UniProtKB/TrEMBL annotation:
Residues 1-21 form the signal peptide. This is PepSY-like beta-lactamase-inhibitor. Keywords: Signal. Gene3D superfamilies: 3.10.450.360.
Length: 102
């Protein structure tokens, strides 16, 4: 009789363990990394097309402060030029061809 009770207790314990094991769920964590890179560029080393855009009528009152060559994850490149004017600051995206990217 002892063997039957012990066997029944063991089976009941194993059944409970199995039920608990089936109710555990797992989740995955996905992390995206921004692979955009910004490389500082000296203002005098900007391409001539970019310099021409900055000297144009629309931006002639703004003074370039810093510039970066930005490369996105899909390998597109443009220049980010930070401008100042009478205490105001602005940032401008300009393609290598001198066209302002909106």
């Amino acid at each position: 009789m002892k063997k039957i009770i012990l066997s029944a207790a063991f089976l009941a314990f194993a059944g409970l363990t199995t039920v608990k094991a089936n109710t555990i769920s797992t989740s995955a964590i996905v992390i995206q990394q921004d692979s955009t890179t910004k490389t500082p560029v000296k203002l005098e080393e900007l391409p001539d097309a970019v310099k021409t855009t900055l000297k144009g009528d629309k931006y002639k009152d703004w003074a370039p402060a810093t510039a970066f060559l930005v490369t996105s994850a899909d390998k597109k490149e443009w220049y980010q030029v930070d401008l100042t004017k009478e205490g105001q600051t602005a940032s401008l995206k300009i393609g290598k061809d001198g066209v302002v990217v909106e």
